TrEMBL record:
It comes from the Bacteria. The keyword DNA repair does not apply. This is Type 1 glutamine amidotransferase domain-containing protein. The keyword DNA repair does not apply. Belongs to the peptidase C56 family. Residues 8-180 form the DJ-1/PfpI domain. InterPro entries: C56_PfpI-like, Class_I_gatase-like, DJ-1/PfpI. Keywords: Glutamine amidotransferase. Pfam families: DJ-1_PfpI.
Length: 184
């Protein structure tokens, strides 16, 4: 697995504040361990503030911003959760457009927990089968998705492959599925 993602660059789109730290760091490590290059993308340069649920955790250096680096520079996209993270991103037109561009280009996307809120705003979940934090199921159904309560769901019924998971407890399966899909 050490070279499965060799030569692939994976964008991790996060708000300046509110990302669930473990949902950023565990997939990041999985991409690195598979030989890929993760890059932290945000709406602002500088550092982002991660959280452990509602408590401040570590900060992370932003590699680039959505207005500087186009999605074409990346092979795949990871959308970590946290309640505040995708709630902020879905209000930022350039962040929503960044995420949508991966679907338009047929590139794989992996989203965990509350992250599908950004995808709902991008209008890319219609006709997809996916999972999320349970409180998003009505939002996803209202946006045209089929919601399932599964540890990880890989949906190939659209322009790209979409990997989704429910919560931090699902991270092992989420990371394995994301790496598998990203190496295709």
């Amino acid at each position: 697995m050490a070279t499965d993602l060799q030569g692939k660059t994976v964008a991790f789109l996060c708000a300046p504040e509110g990302v669930e730290q473990v949902e950023l760091t565990e997939p990041w490590k999985a991409v690195e361990q598979a030989g890929g290059q993760p890059r932290l993308v945000s709406t602002q340069s500088g550092r982002i503030q991660a959280f452990d649920h509602l408590d401040k955790a570590d900060t992370f250096q932003v590699d680039t911003t959505v207005d500087v680096s186009p999605p074409q520079e990346f092979d795949a996209l990871v959308l970590p959760g946290g309640v505040a993270n995708p709630d902020f991103l879905r209000t930022q037109e350039n962040a929503v457009a960044f995420a949508k561009a991966f679907f338009d280009a047929g590139k794989p996307v992996a989203a965990i927990c509350h992250a599908p809120w950004t995808l709902i705003e991008a209008d890319v979940v219609r006709g997809r089968t996916m999972t999320s934090w349970p409180s998003l199921q009505t939002d996803l159904r209202n946006a045209g998705a089929t919601w399932v309560d599964e540890e990880v769901k890989i949906c190939e019924g659209g322009p790209n492959v979409l990997v989704t998971s429910r919560k931090p407890d699902d991270l092992k399966a989420f990371c394995q599925a994301a790496v598998e899909v990203f190496k295709r």
